[in-house]
Structure formats: C-alpha cells, structure tokens
Amino acid sequence: MRFSFSSVALLAVAISASSALSQSFPPGVVPVGGAIVDVSSTAINLQTQKGPVTVKLAQPATVYAGEPSDLKHITKNSYIGVGSVKGEDGKEHATDIKIFPEVFRGLAEGSYMQPGQGGAPSNSRMTNGAVASKPKSGSRMTNGAVSSTGSGSELTVGSQTIEVPAGTPVILIAPTTKPLQPGQHVLIPAKKQDDGSLIGQNIFLQPAK
Questions:
Q1: Interatomic CA distance for residues 32 and 21, integer angstroms
Q2: pTM (2 decimals)?
Q3: Per-residue pLDDT tens over the stretch 33-53
Q4: What are residue 117's phi and psi, to 5 degrees?
C-alpha cells in the first residue's frame, strides 16, 4: 500500500466532505468523507455523518496531502480549486489556491458557496476547474488566453472570475508517505460496486480539526 512522500503541513482542501457532497462528480463516483476508525492494506473503516462506512482499497492505494507551492506550478489545463470571499468592491478575492493531481480531475467541478459554522450560510466560495493557460506574474488568466493587466492578477475558472491578491497561498496536492492514523479525516472518491460495496484507490488526507 503506497502512502508516499515527505510529510508537509496539512491544509484546508477544496474538496471537503461537508461542502462537496452535493457538487458535480464523475458518473459512478461516491465521495466518502469521515474520520478513520481503522485502516489496513485492504480496507479503511470510516465514521461518517451518516454512520460507519467501509471502503475497500484498490492497489496501489495512494494518500494525498498538501505542500506549499506557487503560481509557477500551475500549467496549462491544471485542475485547481480556488477559495474566495466577496470584497466590498463586489468581486471575489482569492484566499487560497490548490493544485490537484490528475486523479482528482473533475471532482466537485464548479463554483459553490461553502457552509459556515453549523451549516449556516457564509460568504466563502469554492471554485474548482481547469485552466487554459499558464498564469504569469502581473497577468490575467482567462479560459482562453493570458494577457497583461499591470500589477494585479485575475483568475477565471469556469465562469467565475476571481481577483488574486499578492501573497495568496498556493498549495500542491501530492502523494505522502505519512501513515494514516485513527482519528484523521479523509475524503475518498469511491466507486460503488454492483453488490453495493465501495472501492477506492485515492485517499485525500484532510487537515487536523
């Protein structure tokens, strides 16, 4: 079972168990999020909001977490997630950007409001999608091209345009060797089998609460 590479600081992820469940997922994919009860090389048992769930693990199973990155690592057709809040100017302003690996392409694609404390409304938005061109410092990135805009940056993912302030954190989601432990929260894009069981291969390690 491959729990690969160097340990890094965990992060809030663009696909969260609480906010992504109602969003768009590829056909046959069931996002399962919860706290680990126990894990082996063949299965992972989770305590979810709806009760205990077992996900069988296809091999090689891989755990993904986050490490600090920058805009230089966003390339043409990268699948990214952008957290943002609406400013007094009425525009969305990025609070963080996540770069997802290819295995997560298409998960929770779109732009949606995130729930606040206790499920209450919030002004925090999550936008997931592919980019068309590699961003440059002081440039505008749209679905079709990159053009100069002076000192600021503006990012368009799907139909959502987002201002990117200087210093906005960029996180690369990548494999990690850090072993999974009971109590950790994960999200698994699982596939439902004909017998009703769930099987997954990619495990998204979420930040400590």
A1: 8
A2: 0.73
A3: 999 999 999 999 999 999 999
A4: -60, 130
